[in-house]
Amino acid sequence: MNFNLSNTLADWLTERTIPFKYLPGPPPCLWVSVNDWASVANLAKQEGLRLVAEWASQQNESFFIHSSYALPKQGYALVFARLDSGNESFPSLAPHYIAAVRMERAIHDLYQIVPEGHPDLRPWIKGESWPEQASPLRKDFSLKTIWAKQTGSYPFTGMKESVGHEIPVGPIHAGIIEPGHFRFCAVGETILTLEERLGYVHKGIEKHMESRDVDSAARLAGKISGDATVAHTWAFCMAAEQASETKVPLRADYIRAILCERERMANHIGDIGAMCNDVAWSFMQMQCQRLREDLARLHGNLFGHRLLMDCLVPGGVACDLDDEKKKLIREQTHAIGKEMSELFQIYEDHISTRERVIGSGSLATRDAQDLGVVGFIGRSCEQNLDARCDAAYSPYDRHLPHIKVCRGGDVSARLWIRFEEIQVSVGLITTLLEELPSGQILENLRTPADGRWGFAAVESWRGEIVTWLRFGPEGQINRCYVRDPSMVNWLGLELVVRDIPVPDFPLNNKSFNCSYSGHDL
Question: All domains of the chain, ordered by start, with CATH?
Answer without folding.
Answer: 4-116 (3.30.460.80), 205-519 (1.10.645.10)
